[in-house]
Amino acid sequence: ASCLVGSEMCIRDSNSADSAKLTKTFSTPTNDKKYVFSTWFKMSKISNHNQIFTAGTSTTNYAFIAISDASYFWYYENVSGTKISLRTYGKKLFRDHSAWYHIVVAVDTTQATSTDRVKVYFNGELYTDWETAQSNHGTQNYTPLLCAANPHSIGVGTGDYTSSYVDGYLSQTSFIDGTAYNATDFGEAVSYTHLRAHETRGN
Q: Using the 8-state DSSP alphabet, how is residue 145 labeled?
C-alpha cells in the first residue's frame, strides 16, 4: 500500500514568508477505492484556505482536506466537474489556536450506503452533522483523486488555491491506501475530548 507517515512538523510559521510543503507522486494504488488520512494539527492563524492534504493537477481535477479561512473543515473533490463535498460551515469550527485537533478521513467508495463512503472523525468521534448544501458523499465506486496516481501535497493548496499555504503544525500524519481504518487505529481516548496518538510507521 502507498503509505506516507510524518512526525511533527511546522509547515509555515504565521510570521514567515516561507512556502514550505511536502509533495509526492504515488504509483498505482493498492486499491483506488479505499484510503485513510490521519493527522494531528494546530493552526497558527486562520489564513486563506489551510489545505492540509491535496491532490490533482488542474482546476477541474483536484481534491483537498482543509480548514478554511472561516475556520470550518472542508473535504472536497472536483473530478472533471463532478463534485464531492463535506463541510462543517455553520456547524463546527476550529478556532482554538492553542489546541491540537485530530482528524481522520476514511474513504471506501465501494460501500452501498452513501454516508459510509466518506467518514470523518474529529478527536476520535465520527462526525455526521454536515452543512446541508455541502453534504455529498459521492456515488458508489467512484475513484477519489486523493487515492489516485497523481501529485499529492501536504501544506499547499491545489486547484483554485495553489498560492495558499498552511499556517500551523502537523504531527503523526499518515496516508494509507487500500483500507479505510477508523480513528481508534491512530489513537486512544484518554478523556471525553482528547486522544493519545499511537505510533505509526511507513515509507
A: G
Kindly tell me if the per-residue pLDDT of 130 is higher than 70: yes
Q: What is the DSSP letter of 81?
A: T
Residue whose grid cell is 499547499? 156
Which one-letter amino acid corresponds to residue 170? Answer: L
Per DSSP, the three-state class of 170 is strand
CA angle at 54 for the pair 193 and 91, rounded to the nearest 5°:
40
Q: Which residue in 157, 142, 61 sits closest to 107, CA to CA?
A: 142
CB of 201 within 8 A of CB of 5? yes
Give, for 188, the enclosing helix (H) or strand (E).
strand 187-189
pLDDT reported for residue 3:
44
Residues in a beta bridge with 84: 77
Asked whether the predicted pLDDT for residue 113 surpasses 90, the reply is yes
6 grid coordinates? 510524518
The single residue listed with the C-alpha cell 453534504 is 135
Q: What is the mean pLDDT of the chain?
A: 81
Q: What is the pLDDT of residue 203?
A: 46
Phi-psi label, residue 45: left if phi above 0, alpha if psi -120 to 50, beta otherwise: beta
pTM beyond 0.90: no
